[in-house]
Amino acid sequence: MSVNREEIKRLIDRISEKDAKKVLGFLEKLGSRIENQTFSPSDLSEDKALIDQIIASRKDRESGRIYNKEEGLEYLRENVKGFERKQYF
Description:
This protein is an all-alpha fold. It has one domain (5-88). 78% of the residues lie in helices and 0% in strands. The protein has helices at 5-13, 17-36, 41-45, 48-62, 69-88. It starts with a helix and ends with a helix. The model has no long low-confidence stretch (mean pLDDT 79).
């Protein structure tokens, strides 16, 4: 099986900082299990955080909410502005 590392990097660049921390945790956990040879695919099906992240990602894709780095920053800025406006009124 061929792995497209550039595609993996491109996908990682598109996720939020918060989700990046979750992905990092998952990869570290996966790496640790692979090193210890205790990893089982069934472990993934029991990882609620991973399942929730996949569901949220699917919903984002279905609704067209996929951002590149600049679009993501602009989205966050607009949301922060909206939040701040609500705080002052």
